[in-house]
Amino acid sequence: MPRGDWGLQQRWTIVQMNDNEVAIKLNRGNYIGQGAFDHAKQRHVADEMEMLTPVKNKDGSWPFKSRGKKYLSSWRSDSKQRDYVDFQKHNKRCEKWTLERY
Per its record, what are the GO molecular function terms (predicted)? Predict the structure, then answer.
């Protein structure tokens, strides 16, 4: 799904769900979850596929790993001139998130 449909990225909120997992809440109140074919989906309730495990990288960035063992990713398709949010099997550049306090 194109990032434009997700709202402003800086308005996402990380919600602690249990000792090890978080959920990411969008500015419209929905949560990001892993859907079919590893597409990111918006959900009204944070359930099993919306639970993410944050892991701090040495460079200070944070990847978020789903229970489906995939990483939350944001990347740009230059050919389509669009940004996407989905889940990938690797933890590379597009899966590293920088967090800011608000």
Answer: actin filament binding
Domain 3-95 has CATH 2.80.10.50: yes
> Of 58, 44, 43, 54, whose CA–CA distance to 17 is shortest?
54
What is the Cα–Cα distance from 50 to 54, expressed in whole angstroms?
12
d(CA 47, CA 97) in angstroms, rounded, equals 22
Sign of CA dihedral 27, 97, 88, 22: negative
Domain extent listing, the chain: 3-95
The pTM of the full predicted model, rounded to 2 decimals, is: 0.81
